[in-house]
UniProtKB/TrEMBL annotation:
<keyword id="KW-0520">NAD</keyword>
<dbReference type="InterPro" id="IPR036291">
    <property type="entry name" value="NAD(P)-bd_dom_sf"/>
</dbReference>
<dbReference type="GO" id="GO:0006012">
    <property type="term" value="P:galactose metabolic process"/>
</dbReference>
<dbReference type="InterPro" id="IPR001509">
    <property type="entry name" value="Epimerase_deHydtase"/>
</dbReference>
<dbReference type="GO" id="GO:0003978">
    <property type="term" value="F:UDP-glucose 4-epimerase activity"/>
</dbReference>
<dbReference type="GO" id="GO:0005829">
    <property type="term" value="C:cytosol"/>
</dbReference>
<feature type="domain" description="NAD-dependent epimerase/dehydratase">
    <location>
        <begin position="4"/>
        <end position="268"/>
    </location>
</feature>
<protein>
    <recommendedName>
        <fullName>UDP-glucose 4-epimerase</fullName>
        <ecNumber>5.1.3.2</ecNumber>
    </recommendedName>
</protein>
<keyword id="KW-0413">Isomerase</keyword>
<dbReference type="InterPro" id="IPR005886">
    <property type="entry name" value="UDP_G4E"/>
</dbReference>
<comment type="subunit">
    <text>Homodimer.</text>
</comment>
<keyword id="KW-0119">Carbohydrate metabolism</keyword>
<keyword id="KW-0299">Galactose metabolism</keyword>
<comment type="similarity">
    <text>Belongs to the NAD(P)-dependent epimerase/dehydratase family.</text>
</comment>
<dbReference type="Pfam" id="PF01370">
    <property type="entry name" value="Epimerase"/>
</dbReference>
<comment type="pathway">
    <text>Carbohydrate metabolism; galactose metabolism.</text>
</comment>
Length: 341
């Protein structure tokens, strides 16, 4: 089995990707310092795959400790790099922490990859690199606009670091950046899912916690946007579909014959849904009537964004299989599992 280092592998997207890697014949090795994840996730992964995942509880910015992993594991075929600070609002308040953590970990990984001849990297990027695009849907050729936050800036910068490092060409290095849109849902087993700390900043965990009586009625931030019902439009993708895209990216890198290869892919459904449509999808999936109110617009929110996914379909041979309604069903089952513990 090919060893794949998964940084941030105990996180929301990372944990689902660890499962998909294992089920596709890889040996995932988690690196996570649990600064934004919980150790209980490891038990959920174990329940799904039937064995305890291998884990190194260290910080990806610590080059000495990261180097010990490369030395101990000896032959790491590839890396999927999730580990990063990811809260847009927090990044505005703590820009230096975000630049240090998100850019520093990328630099450490690339230096060690070149040193130990690990040639394949899949990077967890984001549709935030596009800002508020002038034309929709966004394609991979859509130009970057100035980042709306330090978080978005780190994703833009990491992509540029990757592109320029690959371009040097003095050692084999192949990389793919996956630009995620809005991951939602949970594993159908309800063993792993999203674990936000404090008040959720994302819509779906706030919906599930509100439905469970843990949060007040949902506030919809603005209903006067230029959209079908006045609320913001997002491209919601089931986290299991997203996890599978990482396996496809690794398989593409394995087949790529060039020693210097860099490519980017949008990972979304290709369809936008409004906030109200997401709320109604939850109601249809669960039979639960949600309480919500309309509030003022939230600073920094993009009006609408959704992906053009032809490239990921044709080149990655990947497409989504699960609907928003199924994502809401799985998110609710996960919420109920959390409350039963």
């Amino acid at each position: 089995m090919s060893k794949i280092l998964v940084t941030g592998g105990a996180g929301f997207i990372g944990s689902h990707t660890v499962v998909e890697l294992y089920q596709s014949g890889y040996e995932p090795i988690i690196v996570d310092n649990f600064s934004n994840s919980e150790r209980s996730v490891l038990k959920g992964i174990e329940t799904i795959i039937g064995k305890a995942p291998k884990i190194y509880a260290i910080d990806c910015n610590d080059k000495l400790e990261m180097e010990e992993i490369f030395q101990q594991e000896k032959s790491i075929q590839g890396i999927i790099h999730f580990a990063a600070y990811k809260a847009v609002g927090e990044s505005v308040e703590k820009p230096l922490e975000y630049f240090h953590n998100n850019l520093g970990s990328m630099q450490v990984l690339l230096e060690l990859m070149l040193q130990y001849n690990t040639s394949q990297l899949v990077f967890s990027s984001s549709c935030t690199v596009y800002g508020q695009p002038e034309k929709l849907p966004v394609t991979e050729q859509t130009p970057f606009l100035p980042a709306q936050s330090p978080y978005g800036a780190t994703k833009q910068m990491c992509e540029e670091i990757l592109r320029q490092t690959v371009a040097i060409g003095h050692k084999p290095l192949k990389a793919i950046s996956l630009r995620y849109f809005n991951p939602v849902g949970a594993h159908p087993s309800a063993q792993i899912g999203e674990l936000p700390r404090g008040v959720p900043g994302n819509l779906v965990p706030f919906i599930t916690q509100s439905a469970a009586g843990l949060r007040p009625p949902i506030t919809v931030f603005g209903n006067d946007y230029n959209t079908s019902d006045g609320t913001c439009v997002r491209d919601f993708i089931h986290v299991v579909d997203l996890a599978k895209a990482h396996v496809k990216a690794l398989q593409l890198l394995e087949k790529e014959t060039s020693d210097s290869y860099y490519e980017v892919f949008n990972i979304g459904t290709g369809k936008g849904s409004t906030v109200l449509e997401a709320i109604h999808a939850f109601e249809e999936a669960t039979g639960i009537k949600l309480q919500y109110k309309i509030g003022p617009r939230r600073p920094g929110d993009i009006e609408k964004i959704y992906a053009e996914v032809n490239k990921s379909s044709e080149v990655l041979n990947w497409h989504t299989e699960l609907s928003l309604k199924e994502a809401m069903r799985d998110a609710w089952n996960w919420q109920q599992k959390l409350q039963s513990k």
